[in-house]
């Protein structure tokens, strides 16, 4: 079982930046595809960004391309989401996800609120 702990959420004004972190419990972290998802009130959870085990391949939702950057440090079992030029519509609970041989593990989520 993989345990994921997110941190770094908070309240920020539009145009500001936040950096989310997700620490994984397993030493085999480096073999997982990792991702960030978000869920706004009344909406379905959606994928924001994913990163391959090596960090060599990343993908982003169209709504965050050019503003968000996903990265990972396998030595620290941690994945990051740098969020710049934040907009009020980015307000949501952000969740870290680990894809372990087709099984998804989730963190508890961290709230990001962007004020206009």
Q: Helix-strand pattern, N to C? A: EEEEEEEEEEE
Number of distinct helices: 0
- Main structural class: mainly beta
What is the helix content? under 10%
- The average pLDDT value, as a whole number, equals 95
Beta strand count: 11
**Which regions have little confidence, pLDDT < 50, spanning 5+ residues?**
none
- End-to-end span in angstroms? 40 Å
Shape: globular
The percentage of residues in β strands lies in over 45%
Identify the notable features of this structure and list them briefly.
0% helix, 116 residues, 4-stranded antiparallel β-sheet, mainly beta, single chain, globular
Please outline what is shown here.
The protein is an all-beta fold. Helix content is 0%, strand content 53%.
What do you see in this structure?
- The protein has 116 residues and is mainly β.
- The protein has no helices and eleven strands.
- The chain has strands at residues 4-7, 10-13, 18-24, 33-39, 46-51, 58-60, 68-73, 78-83, 92-100, 103-106, 110-115.
- The strands form two sheets. Strands 2, 4, 5, 6, 9, 10 and 11 form a seven-stranded mixed β-sheet that branches. It has a four-stranded antiparallel β-sheet with strand order 1-3-8-7, with no helix packed on it.
- A hairpin with a 4-residue loop joins β7 (68-73) and β8 (78-83).
- The model has no long low-confidence stretch (mean pLDDT 95).
């Amino acid at each position: 079982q993989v345990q994921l702990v997110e941190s770094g959420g908070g309240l920020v004004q539009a145009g500001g930046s936040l950096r989310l972190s997700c620490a994984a419990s397993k030493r085999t972290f480096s073999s997982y595809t990792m991702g960030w998802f978000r869920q706004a009130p009344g909406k379905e959870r959606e994928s924001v960004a994913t990163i391959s085990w090596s960090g060599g391949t990343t993908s982003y939702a169209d709504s965050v391309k050019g503003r968000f950057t996903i990265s990972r440090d396998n030595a620290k079992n941690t994945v990051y989401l740098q969020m710049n030029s934040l907009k009020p519509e980015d307000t949501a609970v952000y969740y870290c996800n680990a894809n372990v041989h087709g099984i998804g593990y989730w963190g508890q989520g961290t709230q990001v609120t962007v004020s206009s």
